[in-house]
């Protein structure tokens, strides 16, 4: 059970639920360090867990599971009181959390960009015709196929270390992964080129971490509040609203990226067919002062995508043969 909160305003113990991949554990440790700094007296523990998504990595994940597969076990630990919070890559968190859970804090975003990794070539543009690029993200696949139709895209599964091993084994000429993951794992030197948002628009939430708790744990929420970074939270709220409005899941090649310039939040989004054949895109700007206003920005950009034919693309996508697109990190 959760230790009953008393009137003390510092925690005695905080247990962080985490998946067991190297990236997930790094992220949990990062949050643990930040909490320890805030609460030097507290005992902070990481509870490593294997999720269903991790267990069936070697097999093809059905369309049914999706992002939820990687967060559910962590939510059971929260609900049981075995852990007070769970750390997630926000990109992997479904738009709507199950009843009884909430995101208590969003941490300041790290590098949101995609990274080009190759032992052989310095950029996508330098790859000879017919080169095989590894990625299991439909968004990245659509980008490569639209911009570099002479390249081949092949699925690339597994956590970051596995993906790098497959690259080094010669299965791919290059791979595209999130810069943030490589930077966190001290693999920055593997990045040959970062892809600017104008070239590869990031996925909603990429590079940001979210702390999930039981919705009724107001005391835990208050303890986590100092870690909340509200400019990041507004940006990712706008991005996630695009995805939420379109009914986006990890099966959808949707990009949504919001960036602050002074008091202006600019949001760009696009939805593409993975073969690069069709694409709708939209932008919007606002000066949100509340999460609701940030979300409204996302909904208006989504509405523009719909006007341009997003539903037709979604329709075409859903009639494709399901492919494995999800990667565990
Ligand atoms: N899709 C899996 C995933 N989820 C979070 C990250 C990286 C870290 C982040 O975006 O915060 C990755 C790896 C990748 O996309 O290459």
From TrEMBL:
S-(dipyrrolylmethanemethyl)cysteine modifications at: 250
Catalytic activity: 4 porphobilinogen + H2O = hydroxymethylbilane + 4 NH4(+)
GO CC annotation terms, alphabetical: cytoplasm
Organism domain of life: Bacteria
Cofactor field: dipyrromethane
Pfam families associated with the record: Porphobil_deam, Porphobil_deamC
Enzyme class label: transferase
Keyword Amino-acid biosynthesis in annotation: no
Residue intervals passing through the bilayer: none
UniProt keyword annotations, A-Z: Porphyrin biosynthesis, Transferase
Biological processes annotated in GO: protoporphyrinogen IX biosynthetic process
Keyword DNA repair: no
Record pathway: Porphyrin-containing compound metabolism; protoporphyrin-IX biosynthesis; coproporphyrinogen-III from 5-aminolevulinate: step 2/4
Cofactor note: Binds 1 dipyrromethane group covalently.
Family note: Belongs to the HMBS family.
Subunit structure: Monomer.
NCBIfam families, A to Z: hemC
Protein name: Porphobilinogen deaminase
Origin species: Mycoavidus cysteinexigens
Gene name tied to this protein: hemC
């Amino acid at each position: 059970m959760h230790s009953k909160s008393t009137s003390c305003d510092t925690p005695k113990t905080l247990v962080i639920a985490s998946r067991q991949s190297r990236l997930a554990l790094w992220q949990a440790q990062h949050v643990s360090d930040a909490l320890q700094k805030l609460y030097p007296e507290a005992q902070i523990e990481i509870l490593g867990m294997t999720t269903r998504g991790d267990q069936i990595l070697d097999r093809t994940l059905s369309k049914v599971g999706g992002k939820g597969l990687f967060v559910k076990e962590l939510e059971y630990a929260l609900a049981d009181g075995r852990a007070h919070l769970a750390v997630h890559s926000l990109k992997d968190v479904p738009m709507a959390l199950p009843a009884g859970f909430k995101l208590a804090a969003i941490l300041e975003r790290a590098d949101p960009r995609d990274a080009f990794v190759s032992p052989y070539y310095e950029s996508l543009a330098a790859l000879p015709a017919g080169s095989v690029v590894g990625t299991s993200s439909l968004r990245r696949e659509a980008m490569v196929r639209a911009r570099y139709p002479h390249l081949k895209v092949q699925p690339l599964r597994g956590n970051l270390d596995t993906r790098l091993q497959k690259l080094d084994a010669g299965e791919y000429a290059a791979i595209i992964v999130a810069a943030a993951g490589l930077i966190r794992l001290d693999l920055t030197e593997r990045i040959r080129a970062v892809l600017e948002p104008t070239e590869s628009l990031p996925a909603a939430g990429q590079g940001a971490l979210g702390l999930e708790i039981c919705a009724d744990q107001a005391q835990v929420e208050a303890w986590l509040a100092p870690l909340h970074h509200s400019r990041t939270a507004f940006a990712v709220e706008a991005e996630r609203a695009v995805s939420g409005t379109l009914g986006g899941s990890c099966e959808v090649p949707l990009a949504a990226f919001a960036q602050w310039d002074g008091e202006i939040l600019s949001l760009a989004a696009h939805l593409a067919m993975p073969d690069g054949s069709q694409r709708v895109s939209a932008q919007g700007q606002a000066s949100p002062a509340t999460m609701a206003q940030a979300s409204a920005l996302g909904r208006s950009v989504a509405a523009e995508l719909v006007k341009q034919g997003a539903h037709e693309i979604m329709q075409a996508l859903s009639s494709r043969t399901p492919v494995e697109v999800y990667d565990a990190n």
